[in-house]
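We store chain and fold; thus.
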Amino acid sequence: MLQTDLSSLMLFVSGAAILLAMIAIIINILLRSKMRKFQDAYISLQKMVSGNDLEQLLQANLNEVRKISELTSKHEKRLGAAEDKLRQGVDGIGVVRFNSFENMGSDLSFSVALLNQEGTGLILTGIHSREECRIYAKAIEQGQTKAKMMDEEKEAVQLAMETIKI
């Protein structure tokens, strides 16, 4: 009786092993089929419609991006230098005409402020009278001067400071 139990147990174990082997073979066949489909899709992805290799196309694009990045860096440096130079140049001008003496007709006297982006420059004031015309210059730093300014000069400086800054 022990012999028949052992024999039936061996038969059951070998049947289970065969069944597991068959399942493993079926799974292997299914996985190989899916792998073949994946490889075909990968190859078709590599070969574009135009026939170019995807890796070559990506490398060419990467090289182009590097060139554009270098050009952008050069342009940023040049633009920075141009902006620095522009800030130093006179770009704010304010002009105010006025009558410096009550007995004089028309506004023959003037104040002209010539300033850069930081409000540094000069102000020219011409005082016109019947006998002569005198012109005075005052240095301006950041919209201020050490000398006393007339109201018309202050107005000219304010007009010059209202220009668009970069």
Q: What stands out?
A: The helical segments are 2-46, 54-88, 151-161. Residues 2-46 form the longest helix (45 residues). The two ends are 104 Å apart (CA to CA).
